[in-house]
Design a protein that fits this description.
alpha+beta, four-stranded antiparallel beta sheet, 4 strands
Amino acid sequence: MKIASLVVRVAPEHIRALTEALLEIPGVEVHGASPEQGRLIVTVEDGEGYSTMDSILAVNLNKMVLGVTMAYEYTDEGLELQEQEA
């Protein structure tokens, strides 16, 4: 499992349209918005048939997006190997 959280900058007048567009991207959820500051709080989770990076790239390529900052990233890949070595 991989998950990332993003702060997405957008012109305030495009917040609603961008929110709707982002929800069409696999694994993307919008958790909060600051219309005054033009920011959305978004999480991206991988799933069957798509990767976290594919979805982050799709967010970043939307023409309404002014900028994307990754705030957090988590992966559990390799945890089984670490547990076996311990």
